């Protein structure tokens, strides 16, 4: 017997502490905090799902109490507290925590307000279809290894045979010792597309994979600002992803009370507590750190989230919203740290490595499943071969069994006389007499032939890697068809972020802006060309007190400049403008530009490139005209740039692009038009903060209504033409002259229009009265728009009520200046022409060799 002194082992304290702490750290890392990269689960989640599977809680079975599940997990697999197990179970059932929940919960499972779930004795659960189809299927087919549980009485799977990249699908977060993980959730369909792309091209890069997996897809929706954080996380394993809630600026109407502007939040960033957010905003308002808010209320219900933040009358909603982004969790960062266990070793993984681990794991599970199926098929076929031998010598077998002393003797004699194995002899002794019939013998032979074909096929799968890859693709494609859902999180361009514009199709689009400031973008192809004098089709849902204010056509790669009545210019790429259907009202421009409610957009212009040779011609309501180099507007700040200085009471109304050699045509409401050159003699270039010079003299109550630019190639022809103001040429002369020059298209409010050769508008000095452009059919009619047009062009006309007609320019008659025109568009009573725009020329017409005019190489 040893003494107590002999049992004491002297040990260095630092070494003992280091070893013990390292063992503890590895236990936490492997056994609790970090997920396995193969099935994306931590041990507690894996044990819950497996225990529910063993209990038979599949999607088609009834719900069972969560307390029953927690008890099963604690008693068999997870030797920790019941709170940890129930919390993990609850999270797997929350649709605001998991992108694709794995458990179907029945009862109170908490809320986005951080309300606690009901006690486990009240709630019920069962597995979701995705969990059984994508995580637990084939677990009995020896696809994964099993290990003893904590007391050796049961076995539990080390990993589940996942058919989808579950770790990326639902993400994971955990804090271990000296390390942590934070993986965002993704869209199932995009992940499967990325996995298939990797299988088909193993050399694919991280950035190429981003074409299939553009970024995280959070269960609460929201927006992701910019792609730089996503790119960093996908290529290095770490990155900061900026998340932002979805907030719209709406006009709230109350019965008996005046209208109010309000910010309405309908989606929040991932893991944002709604109740805490509302409390935070209220505290900021009380502390006067955010001003302009009069009331906050939560109008969320079962149909969706709705946080209403009412504005004070003098507040600018866009400014308040920007302050909310800066000071509240409506905008927050997700610190991606893509750490997971690969072979029980923590590794920082990029997006390609994640999918490689998943692919390799699927190859292993399919190989093991095939080996299991092959072994079972061979074992069954081995027994069938023994039965077929016995049936072939049935009399001998019956005689042998009848004269045997006992079962053991019969088995031995069968093995010796027929050359059978012990398993085959047992199968013969257990065979029922009914299987001796001829029909049963045929069935056994057919089953044997079927198993032989199955064995050949299974061996071919094991020998052919391409077949395994095809099986992986087939299985995950089936899961995509069953369980994939549309993306919830929108990825938008971040401020100052450079975007690869080549990834965006450069299509011809129509941009509409209503009087009340609603804007939208639609493909030009939405509107087919129609004949003259038809009614057209609705282009927007227009309310009674609204109407179409501005209407342009351009290409998605163009930059759209918005000029306000205050002489300020704002800039947005065309593809960033909200796309909408033909019957949608659109999105408030206040949400996209930092303009005040009193500020009004008076001109919209599309620019392909900010070149040195181009100028902006600006015309004010009072008739001041100014020419400024386009290059001065190449870098427009987010809060706008001063384009022109205005006299008191004046407004900036029209802006056009021109070159020095071009000339300018300006029309007035009473049907007059003046034509003068844009050269430095008539109109010298001025800086941005200047007022401009007089453009045209007006009589009585006349006012300017439109302006257009005449290209330089025809200015020389017109310069040589002399004509009388009375315009008494014959139609033949007009037609002959029209073949040499473009036309001026004039459209009136009542829907009448005509083409006049531009040579009929002689060049004058600036500040003259001009010449008559059209006579009116009625005293109430007035000129609505003028445009310089060419024979091959098409135009689009929109009315105050949002009706659009698209037609060829040549469908409108050529007439003299003094003619009244023809009916261009039928109008409903009290409707009127609001604006006219030209459809961009196709590439063939511009002779650049491409089919679409917006897709030519710059």
UniProtKB/TrEMBL annotation:
Q: Which Pfam families match?
A: DNA_gyraseA_C, DNA_topoisoIV
UniProt keyword Phosphoprotein, yes or no? no
EC numbers, comma separated: 5.6.2.2
Q: What is its main location?
A: cytoplasm
Report the protein's function. A type II topoisomerase that negatively supercoils closed circular double-stranded (ds) DNA in an ATP-dependent manner to modulate DNA topology and maintain chromosomes in an underwound state. Negative supercoiling favors strand separation, and DNA replication, transcription, recombination and repair, all of which involve strand separation. Also able to catalyze the interconversion of other topological isomers of dsDNA rings, including catenanes and knotted rings. Type II topoisomerases break and join 2 DNA strands simultaneously in an ATP-dependent manner.
Coiled coil start-end: 429-461
Q: What class of enzyme is it?
A: isomerase
Catalyzed reactions: ATP-dependent breakage, passage and rejoining of double-stranded DNA
As a miscellaneous remark, the entry gives: Few gyrases are as efficient as E.coli at forming negative supercoils. Not all organisms have 2 type II topoisomerases; in organisms with a single type II topoisomerase this enzyme also has to decatenate newly replicated chromosomes.
- Which protein, by its recorded name, is this? DNA gyrase subunit A
- Species, as recorded: Hyella patelloides LEGE 07179
């Amino acid at each position: 017997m040893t003494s107590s002194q002999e049992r004491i082992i002297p040990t260095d304290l630092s070494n003992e502490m280091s070893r013990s702490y390292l063992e503890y750290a590895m236990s936490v890392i492997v056994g609790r905090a970090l997920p396995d990269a193969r099935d994306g689960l931590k041990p507690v989640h894996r044990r819950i799902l497996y225990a529910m599977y063993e209990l038979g809680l599949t999607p088609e079975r009834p719900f069972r109490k969560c307390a029953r599940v927690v008890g099963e997990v604690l008693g068999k697999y997870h030797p920790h507290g019941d709170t940890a197990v129930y919390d993990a179970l609850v999270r797997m059932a929350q649709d605001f925590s998991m992108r694709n929940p794995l458990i179907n919960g029945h009862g109170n499972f908490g809320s986005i307000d951080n309300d606690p779930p009901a006690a486990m004795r009240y709630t019920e659960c069962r597995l979701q279809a995705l969990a059984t189809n994508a995580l637990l299927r084939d677990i009995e087919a020896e696809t994964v290894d099993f290990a003893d549980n904590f007391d050796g009485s049961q076995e539990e799977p080390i990993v589940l045979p996942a058919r989808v990249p579950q770790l990326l699908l639902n993400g994971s977060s955990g804090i271990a010792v000296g390390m942590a993980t934070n993986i965002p959730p993704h869209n199932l369909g995009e992940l499967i597309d990325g996995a298939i792309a990797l299988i088909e091209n193993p050399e694919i890069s991280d950035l190429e994979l981003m074409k299939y997996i553009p970024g995280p897809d959070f269960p609460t929706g929201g927006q992701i600002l910019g792609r730089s954080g996503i790119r960093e996380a996908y290529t290095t394993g770490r990155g900061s992803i900026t998340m932002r809630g979805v907030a719209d600026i709406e006009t709230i109407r109350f019965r008996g009370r005046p209208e109010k502007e309000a910010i309405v939040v309908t989606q929040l960033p991932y893991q944002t507590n709604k109740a805490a957010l509302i409390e935070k905003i209220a505290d900021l308002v009380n502390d006067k750190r955010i001003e302009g808010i009069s009331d906050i209320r939560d109008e969320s219900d079962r149909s969706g989230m709705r946080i209403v933040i009412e504005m004070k009358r003098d507040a600018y909603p866009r400014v308040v919203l920007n302050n909310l982004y800066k000071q509240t969790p409506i905008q927050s960062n997700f610190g991606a740290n893509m750490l997971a266990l690969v072979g029980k070793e923590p590794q920082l993984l990029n997006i390609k490595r994640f999918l490689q681990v998943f692919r390799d794991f699927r190859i292993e599970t399919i190989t093991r499943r095939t080996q299991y199926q092959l072994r079972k098929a061979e074992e069954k076929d081995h027994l069938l071969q023994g039965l077929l031998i016995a049936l072939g010598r049935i009399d001998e077998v019956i005689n042998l069994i009848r004269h045997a002393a006992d079962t053991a003797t019969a088995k031995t004699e069968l093995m010796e006389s027929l050359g059978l194995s012990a398993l085959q002899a047992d199968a013969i002794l257990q065979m029922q007499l009914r299987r001796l019939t001829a029909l049963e013998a045929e069935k056994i032979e057919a089953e044997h032939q079927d198993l032989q074909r199955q064995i050949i096929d299974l061996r071919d799968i094991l020998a052919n890697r391409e077949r395994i890859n095809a099986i992986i693709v087939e299985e995950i494609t089936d899961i995509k068809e069953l369980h994939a859902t549309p993306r919830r999180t929108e990825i938008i361009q971040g401020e100052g972020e450079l975007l690869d514009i080549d990834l965006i199709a450069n299509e011809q689009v129509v941009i509409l802006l209503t009087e009340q400031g609603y804007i939208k973008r639609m493909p030009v192809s939405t509107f087919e060309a129609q004949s003259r004098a038809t009614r057209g089709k609705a282009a927007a849902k227009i309310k009674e007190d609204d109407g179409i204010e501005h209407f342009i056509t351009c290409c998605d790669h163009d930059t759209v400049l918005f000029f306000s009545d205050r002489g300020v210019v704002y800039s947005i790429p065309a593809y960033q403008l909200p796309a909408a259907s033909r019957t949608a009202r659109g999105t408030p421009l206040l949400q996209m530009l930092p303009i005040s409610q009193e500020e009004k957009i008076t001109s919209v212009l599309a620019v392909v490139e900010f070149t040195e040779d181009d100028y902006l011609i600006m015309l004010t309501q009072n008739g001041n005209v100014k020419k400024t180099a386009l290059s001065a507007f190449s870098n427009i700040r987010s809060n706008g740039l001063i384009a022109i200085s205005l006299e008191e009471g004046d407004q900036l109304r029209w802006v056009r692009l021109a070159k020095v050699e071009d000339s300018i045509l300006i029309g007035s409401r009473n049907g007059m038009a003046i034509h003068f050159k844009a050269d430095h003699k008539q109109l010298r270039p001025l800086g941005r903060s200047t007022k401009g010079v007089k453009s045209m003299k007006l009589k009585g109550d006349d006012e300017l209504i439109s302006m257009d630019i005449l290209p330089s190639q025809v200015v020389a022809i017109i310069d040589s033409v002399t004509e009388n103001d009375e315009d008494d040429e014959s139609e033949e002369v007009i037609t002959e002259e029209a073949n040499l020059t473009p036309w001026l298209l004039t459209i009136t409010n009542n829907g009448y229009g005509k083409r006049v050769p531009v040579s009929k508008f002689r060049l004058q000095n600036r500040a003259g009265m001009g010449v008559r452009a059209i006579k009116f059919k009625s005293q109430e009619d007035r000129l609505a728009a003028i445009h310089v047009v060419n024979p091959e062009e098409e135009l689009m006309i929109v009315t105050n009520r949002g009706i659009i007609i698209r037609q060829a320019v040549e469908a409108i008659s050529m007439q003299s200046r003094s003619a009244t025109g023809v009916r261009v568009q039928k109008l409903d009573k009290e409707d009127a022409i609001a604006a006219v725009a030209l459809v961009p020329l196709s590439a063939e017409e511009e002779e650049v060799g491409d089919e679409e005019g917006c897709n030519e190489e710059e």
